[in-house]
Design a protein that fits this description.
93 residues; alpha+beta; 33% helix; 2 domains; 3 strands; YefM-like fold; 16% strand; single chain; 4 helices
């Protein structure tokens, strides 16, 4: 474990990062007091994703969005009654 003051660490940051990536642990100090530690990241241990793991487990109906058709249309075009209100007030939409 090596200790560097902040000024020295700023000057040689690239070199220190390379050392940390190689496994070294580096302490950065301010006025002689340790304030930070530069160390390598742990390797990710994520398992690869399996595509199609739920294939055949359930079926999506063809009309899945039918109950929400008015809501979806409202998101794109505004509420269904907005056009009627504007026409009643003499405005064009």
């Amino acid at each position: 474990m090596h200790t560097f003051n902040i000024h020295e660490a700023k000057t040689h940051l690239s070199r220190l990062v390379e050392q940390a990536a190689a496994g070294a642990e580096i302490i950065i100090a301010k006025a002689g007091r340790p304030v930070a530690r530069l160390m390598p990241l742990a390797e990710a241990t994520r398992k690869p994703r399996r595509i199609g793991i739920l294939a055949g487990k359930f079926a999506v109906p063809d009309d899945i969005d039918a109950p929400f058709a008015a809501d979806i249309e409202g998101m794109f075009y505004g509420p269904a009654d907005a056009g009627r209100e504007a026409k009643a007030l003499g405005r064009h939409t």
